[in-house]
Inverse folding.
């Protein structure tokens, strides 16, 4: 008998994730299944749709971040740091509540740290692009 993850116990939607999927892949699969009558026929089509969903999520996050920034001061770097933490918390705590990912206790500390580093990389690039765009325009 496995012990339930405490975050999974709070889920408002039953888990739809399959083994080995992260939240964007689960969301991509669910959207694809709603748009088409059959599941993705080939691994290449599935990978393409997963990648497209990651782009949509990333661009949406970038637009949301860039649209709320009003300066290009040095503190935007600190903003990127904290934005990465907020996105990480949303991923490990929010997505299990909506059935898009397994709860955080299902992952090793090394996996959770790797996810945090990926989010920091994303938010620092996002901040840099935002700063460049603000200076150009």
């Amino acid at each position: 008998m496995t012990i339930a993850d405490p975050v999974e116990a709070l889920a408002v939607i039953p888990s739809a994730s399959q083994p080995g999927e992260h939240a964007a892949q689960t969301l991509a699969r669910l959207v694809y299944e709603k748009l088409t009558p059959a599941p993705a026929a080939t691994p290449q089509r599935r990978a393409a749709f997963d990648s497209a969903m990651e782009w949509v999520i990333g661009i949406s996050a970038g637009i949301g971040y860039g649209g709320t920034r009003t300066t290009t001061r040095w503190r935007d770097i600190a903003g990127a740091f904290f934005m990465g933490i907020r996105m990480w918390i949303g991923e490990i705590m929010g997505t299990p509540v909506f059935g898009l990912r397994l709860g955080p206790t299902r992952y090793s500390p090394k996996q959770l740290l790797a996810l945090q580093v990926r989010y920091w990389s994303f938010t620092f690039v996002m901040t840099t692009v935002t700063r460049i765009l603000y200076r150009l325009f």
The helical segments are 6-9, 23-35, 43-68, 75-97, 109-136.
